[in-house]
Amino acid sequence: MGLYAAVxxxxxxxxxxxxxxxxDGKDAKDKKSDEDKxxxxxxxxxxxxxxxxDAKESKDDKKADKKDDGKDVKPKVKPVRIDxxxxxxxxxxxxxxxxxxxxxxxxxxxxxxxVERKQPGVSIxxxxxxxxxxxxxxxxxxxxxxxxxxxxxxGYSLSPDGKKILLSPGGGRLEIADAKEKxxxxxxxxxxxxxxxxxxAEWRQIFDETWWMEKEFFYDPKLHGLDWQGIxxxxxxxxxxxxxxxxxxxxxxxxxxxLQVGHNRVGGGDVHQEPRVAVGLLGADFxxxxxxxxxxxxxxxxxxxxxxxxxxxxxxxxxxxxxYLLAVxxxxxxxxxxxxxxxxxxVGKQVQLTVSANANGQGARRVTVEPIATEGRLRQWAWIDHxxxxxxxxxxxxxxxxxxxxxxxxxxxxxxRMFFGQVDKPGLIVDDRRNGGGQAxxxxxxxxxxxxxxxxxxxxxxxxxxxxGAIYGPKAMLxxxxxxxxxxxxPYAFKRTGLGPLIGxxxxxGLIGISANxxxxxxxxxxxxxxxxxxxxxxxxxxNEGVAPxxxxxxxxxxxxxxxxxxxxxxxxNVLERLKTWKPIQRTTAPAMPTQVGK
Length: 599
Fold this sequence. Notes:
Blueprint: E1 4-6, H1 26-30, H2 34-67, E2 91-93, E3 100-106, E4 112-117, E5 134-140, E6 145-153, E7 155-158, E8 164-170, E9 173-178, E10 186-187, H3 199-217, H4 228-235, H5 245-256, E11 265-267, E12 284-289, E13 292-298, E14 324-328, E15 331-332, E16 351-356, E17 365-369, H6 376-395, E18 399-403, H7 409-420, E19 427-431, H8 442-448, E20 454-457, E21 463-466, E22 475-479, H9 486-496, E23 502-504, E24 512-514, E25 525-527, E26 529-532, E27 551-552, H10 557-561, H11 566-579
Helix pairs in contact: 3-5, 6-11
């Protein structure tokens, strides 16, 4: 995105129009032409006349005020004229980079404030990234330049008169400053800020607003024919029986559940939460043997992801699967006690572990590690990498494996990394299982549908194809009941475009998507289904239906516990069978060299 101004009036001028003194050279800045001087005199005359007129109007206004019996007199608002004819031709681009901008506001001095945020996908950051923060800029129309005035803020707002700016740097803090070129902020003390709330009145308001937002934001104005007023009359009396905020959420879930639509959720708010203690985790599974904790599995993480840390797998640490963990920070641990009690409040801190290859402690040594807050991504990557290795083993290196945890940022990062790193393989399995959704993965579908256009040969004899990254051979997609939303649409698109069969179980079926509607007054959330998918044949599909597999395969829990994934195995078998009759379409040799000049 960029920043643009629209000149509203047909006789208006660009805010970036050159002004006297803009051009280089001292003479040009210091001298005015005779014509300019005449204009100056004319301007002064007009100002003089205007001053006399204003003085008269001021006296008249004062007289009017006296006649108003002390009542406030509303100031006159100058109307804004917009000439819509030709408006599209009066767009002026500001000289700023194409980037992700939002929160535009104009200050009292005419300068434009805005926030520049990081564009998703341009880099891979630590989980959570910068928390959605951005840099505050000020564009000066006199200087015709933008200047960053405050880095890394969550947001800001200008006072109604445009003279003050309120900043939210994060962490619940607020700062205030003059809305000028230099933002000299002062913190606002909120320690004494309190508000008195009548919970029952607030619960009634939340209930009414939830009912209203479903009526006003649901994609079908007739709410699938449901008597929504009747729903209100049925559920409204139950608000009187609500005893806590959690009860209200239960009631709201029941009410909006009458619509029988998947993407229709409510939760959060002013609910009770116990204080949490951060427990450090070591990225490992343990068993209890010989009365001691023994390391059963060490999750090694991803060496190429600096933000996926595996505490026990750091190079040089020397901790092995099968070692015993005997002490934490010098305090003995054994199978009769909870290991994780001794890891409370250790996240990101240095912890000393005593480990030994023997339960009796013979040859024990001490290592220093930094426990992590969650092992979710470590365990997920271990599963993904195991699947990739298993597909490679079962197929003899002929089939690529790509997993997509969702169809949003992480999913596209997984696809880009795993797909392009395996384009030398003729076959492909895309794993959509447990896909959390996000967007319609058109990008993925288009890449998988790439057509072979030709090849190139260089002086040294290297042959390479165009497009440079593609897999043209047989493909299959694994699906299951835990894939939904964008994880529903991707299998639909995969099948619709004829990329290959779907293998596994029917997806959960949720393609009435959500957009945006206000939060509830106490910070609770409500998402209302706002748009719905229909097919080229004009059918509403997939919602409460899912996408059915071409080859139905249950994920056998007995096989899973034995270390086998029968759905994955079925996918490999299917692609391998089709590879037997598939003929590569790329040329592996160049044609004979031309023997005539100009050919």
